[in-house]
Amino acid sequence: MPVVEACVRCQTHYVDSTGEYNFVRQVIEKFHEEAKKQGVALVSCCAFDSVPGDLGNYFVRKGLGSEVAEVKAFYQLAHGGMSGGTAHSVMAVHESCGLEDNDPYSLLPKDAPRPPTAPARRGVWYDFSERRLTGPFFMSPTNERIVRRTNALLGYGGTYVEAIEGTLGAVVGATITKYMMTAVLAVPFLRRYVAENWLPPAGTGPTQSQREMSWYKCIFVATDKSGKVLRRTFLSDTRDGYTASGLYISECALSALQMAKEGTLGFGVLTPMAAFGDVLLQRVQNAGVVVEAVEETTTGTATPTQ
To answer: Which Gene Ontology cellular component annotation is one that this UniProt entry carries (predicted)?
Structure first.
């Protein structure tokens, strides 16, 4: 928080790679109005959480306006594991969360309307309309809140919800892991025990060979009030989440520099896509991240449009 305060005081734009939505809420409450007055952009969650979700939601909505009632995101991941820093950050979030942070719309502007809450992916869930077997995505608590703030700042309506998709074994495993971790994190002495005895130490993480075998992709589906699909977007990358985080935060910083120079940068506590929009989209596409419209095959799998 002292770094954010210094940036506002010194009229210096700010981006970060945090995934801690309770921290973002505090930044909004303390600095949003002052940052607007000082002409400063404060942009959090500029890494793997939450740029892919924010970017896919932005792209799939382009040009559709108020037609969109819901965007559903389906993630597929191959990753080499969690770093010590990420694991300890998760613990820190649960240590410092207040009751207000349980609100799924905790990052919305105070005067923003609250859209109908989309059904949360709390367990194994078969999406009949998309023919996908899904489970809870461990990054959705942050991603969904960031995307909902983006929607509010850009004047979009509708809801946004994320899930992970895969085989029955994969989604059952994801569900069991989520609820085991939720139970552990809810009990202070268990939380401390896990942090001290089970978590990898800060500064450690997946090996280079593990990272090289990692990738991620996601399908974003925009529907209207009747459930009719308006558009599907495919986002994919061959980088692992940590390498992708370095790319995303770098491109966010460069977008801020470019837009500040052009005089097109907004001010206040923003989200990646509310702040950088098409500039960031073009930059990450130029860096090799695939973001494009898709057509759906008869088996329900996504095929990029050529």
So the answer is: mitochondrion
Q: Choose among 51, 14, 17, 74: nearest CA to 281.
A: 51
Tell me if 36 sits within 8 A of 267, measured CB to CB: yes
CA atoms of 304 and 306, how far apart (whole Å)? 6
CA distance 117 to 119: 6
DSSP secondary structure, 2-54, as one string: HHHHHHHHTT--EE-----HHHHHHHHHHHHHHHHHHT-EEE---BTTBHHHH
**pLDDT at 80 (0 to 100):** 64
Amino acid symbol at 93: V
Q: Report how far residue 239's alpha carbon sits from residue 98's, in angstroms, rounded to the nearest whole number.
A: 34
CA 156 to centroid of chain Cα atoms:
17
Model pLDDT for residues 46-65, shown as the tens digit of each residue: 999 999 999 999 999 998 98
What pLDDT score does 118 carry?
61
- 36 with 268: CB under 8 angstroms? yes
User: What angle (nearest 5°) sits at the alpha carbon of residue 34, between those of residues 28 and 40?
Assistant: 90
**Domain span holding position 10:** 2-304
Total domains, the chain: 1
- Where is pLDDT greater, at 214 or 82? 214
What b/e readout covers 199-215, taking b as 16+ CB neighbours within 10 angstroms? bbeeeebbeeeebeebb
Amino acid 299: pLDDT: 39
Strand arrangement, sheet containing 14-15: 14-15, 41-43, 268-270
CB neighbour list of residue 130: distance below 8 Å, 6 or more residues apart = 72, 74, 219, 221, 300
